[in-house]
Amino acid sequence: MNAKERIPQVGVVVPFEANEAAESLKPLVELVRADMQAVNAIILDKAVSDVDLIPKLAHHLIDSGGKRLRPMLTIAAAKLCGYQGTGHVKLAASVEFMHTATLLHDDVVDESDFRRGKESARLVWGNQASVLVGDFLLGQAFRMMVDVGSLQALKILSDAAAIIAEGEVMQLAAAKNTATTEDDYLAIIDSKTAALFSAAAEVGAAISSRPQQERAALKSYGRNLGIAFQLIDDALDYSGDSARMGKSVGDDFREGKITLPVILCFRRGTEEERAFWTRTLADGEIRDDDLDNAIRLMKRHNAIEATIERARHYGDIARDALAIFGANPAARALTDVIGFCISRAN
Amino acid sequence: MNAKERIPQVGVVVPFEANEAAESLKPLVELVRADMQAVNAIILDKAVSDVDLIPKLAHHLIDSGGKRLRPMLTIAAAKLCGYQGTGHVKLAASVEFMHTATLLHDDVVDESDFRRGKESARLVWGNQASVLVGDFLLGQAFRMMVDVGSLQALKILSDAAAIIAEGEVMQLAAAKNTATTEDDYLAIIDSKTAALFSAAAEVGAAISSRPQQERAALKSYGRNLGIAFQLIDDALDYSGDSARMGKSVGDDFREGKITLPVILCFRRGTEEERAFWTRTLADGEIRDDDLDNAIRLMKRHNAIEATIERARHYGDIARDALAIFGANPAARALTDVIGFCISRAN
User: Fold this and answer.
1) What is the pTM of this model?
2) Rg (CA), chain B
3) Interface contact B53-A154, CB threshold 8 A
4) Chain A partners of B138 at a C-beta cutoff of 8 Å?
């Protein structure tokens, strides 16, 4: 019995709309096209199991048109460092599996009903299967890393796995706490989001045996890009344009998530406004027009613009981190990704 | 802020009662005593995080008096193979963390309220925290393995991680299905339980650079011991003595779990009896005296005795697997563990 035969081979990545954001991702997509085909083939191959439920559930998410931004970072970083082997492909697939496992567990933790514009796996197959298939994909990710055989890559990615989980627990502990500071929040996203971006870029250098400063540069690039990416994601959740990103506006609001736009609004607001945030996010008493109200407060306090400004700051750090590589197609493509992440909010 | 200072250092293993089962574990406990102190120290150290919730939740389970049987197997296998380094200690701690992570996720999946005689972590801190702290411990396990630096050990344990998750999904898919065959069931416990026993024993040989046949012998020993262990666990769930093992009688029954005693009863029973198993386990309609009824049916069909007999069969295979090592204290201690596992049911 070979489960592979029963799975339609539809693991293609949904193309971007031809907008500004997509334009700035184009150089990266072009740069990594051939290798990403190999990555996608491995992803399909390793999501297979004789246990039917595993490929079904895994493919529900894998086929749903994620950008595969993180594995593209690994491939591009390896190219930037002149890597000549084939290990970067398996490492990139491992990075995507780690990300997919995190999404499966996140949806259980957040009790999310939608992901990438369709029903979440936990809604279709239940929390139990989502937890276990997440565990399976994480196991497969480690198997692939071990196959590559670089202890340095293994160290980077296993560190990331623990740090991501730590960040998720931090976020859970901070949930509904409107007193969360901007620093607290940065620590959370540094762990839960930036750690994987950072590791994805750093492993590309680590397997290339390049000087330590190039590895450190890519680590810093990935980390700051990841922070910028998450901040823009937070901003999009309160902006009308986010529907086209496959995310519905107000998800974070309904889940009582304390993100930077909320933190800024809370601090910049009046007593009465703070009472509003406490009632809706901390106490979870949400009425029909509360999301509109929240968006109105965001506008009043320039919270979205300020969040995007903060994201630009981290984007700038990421850009400067790459400067040591000079001008070359891979460095340019990675630099353009920063623009892509920021311009998603425009 | 050092979370370690806030944790009482109570990670001691609860001593066994002086019964026959405990006696047969004694040689192993004696053999590994010094190394297990180091393992326990690492377990306490690596369950620490600045995120308060992580050590709190992790210690709830770590301090609750598990036997630490799996890490003891790793230490004993390394000793049996004459290993002289220190890597076995970290690998043993990794094995225990993998096990702990699995228990945390299992309790979420099974919606269990009790574990080792006290409230389950998910009941105290919620499903969300249990999923995430499980992920954290798995991440820490991989970090420790990477520290040891043996790619062979990494391969064995990452394979096990994926296979365990696969077994759990298999069990989920088979849940409440009274048509599960004995073969189906063996495939499930081979993955979900025996894979970690097997890996725990095999890594001890793998880091010792011993001939392939010794590694294969320990792998086979661990696997068959694990199957025997699980079968006895299944039998205990329908036997009055299981209270003293920190497990309440009837847990599997109430959760609708299809285990070997049930499979045998179902196949050996009348139409009317099969209807009983379908109503209680498949449909989940459990009335007050149904557990007593179930135990009565187990007795009528000798299902518990037959399950223990099956366990003895796998125990015999485990015993013969060790024969190539000849007579020495480590081999004897590992052989006695088989007796321990089986005699738990007496």
Assistant:
1) 0.90
2) 20
3) no
4) 135, 138, 161, 165
